[in-house]
Amino acid sequence: MAFHCRTLTPGIDLYWGDCREVIEHLRETGQLVDFVLSDPPYGQDYVNEAGERIANDKEPPLWSVPLMADLLKPDTAMCLFTSPKPKLMGAWMQAMLNAGLTLPYPPLIWHKVYGGVRPDRYFSPSRAHEMILQAFKGKPPRRRWVDAGRFKPDDPDAVMSHWDAGHIWTEPVPRYKRNRRHPTPKPPGVMERAMWHYTSLNDVVFDPFMGSGPVGVACVRSGRRYIGIEVERKYFNLAVENIQRELVRQTTVEVVKVCAERAAARNIDASSDRSLIVDAETASTTSAT
Questions:
Q1: Number of domains in the chain
Q2: What pTM, to 2 d.p., does this model score?
Q3: Which residue(s) pair with 120 in the sheet?
């Protein structure tokens, strides 16, 4: 299967195709990455409330772990979402160890607030969490921890607020029939938290199981570069749509900020100055095209 690359903006590259072929292409071109953050198929043949499935979920794609590890630079991290089921989680952890990675820390816990109920589980507790495995190539990357609520250091990239310190991260999953166009959506907010722990500004984040693009959206929000791969065309298109929307939103925010600064310099109200509003609208429209 041939792959197709689409660059949404410099530093944001999306591939439609088999991740094995794309990873081989990246290796041949000498591309290395600073962080792997991905939500691969868990290997549990998942079916959501609408009866939708995702591709290649019959067995966990453990073969992908050494391929991802090969692209990592020394002293970097890999974070993978997985099921809390002991057998599946253990298989992913063993694959990481077999790839030469280390697992010195316990998994992170994503508390998604809303549990899922399947027809055969009406009388069992609803599971409202998933696991995020943390593995490292070489030494774990270290970042200075700062309580952003008390003071801000000169280096804005070093700021980590107190909610980053724990291993249980609460981020609501998109509810069914509420903007859910993928069977297993993940909120960009939980991806941002992982990036704050293990990356810096302009680092390259790699995601070979892109889905609807939450990692890419988080990269745009946090100033990271992104390489994403998706094998299903409909989800590739959805990821393009979601990431493009975030690019436009970020551009609009920056334009509005500049307009506000101009207004302050001229001692006027930006909301009442039509020329400034037109500037913002023009910039956002240009970005959308």
A1: 2
A2: 0.78
A3: none
Whether the Cβ atoms of residue 222 and residue 244 lie closer than 8 Å to each other: no
Instruction: Say if residue 217 is exposed, middle or buried (CB neighbours under 10 Å; 0-12, 13-18, 19+).
Output: buried
Domain span at 272: 249-288
Closest to 84 in 3D by CA, of 55, 106, 62: 106
Q: What is the structure's pLDDT at 47?
A: 60
Residue 241 lies in a domain: no
Cα-only R_g, the chain: 20
Q: Are strands 33-38 and 204-207 parallel, antiparallel or unpaired?
A: parallel
Verify that 87 and 222 share a domain, yes or no: yes
Are 140 and 280 within one domain?
A: no
Which parts of the chain have pLDDT scores under 70?
A: 1, 43-57, 114-127, 142-166, 174-184, 258-259, 263, 267-289
Residue 89: per-residue pLDDT:
92
What is the phi/psi pair of residue 12, to 5°?
-125, 100
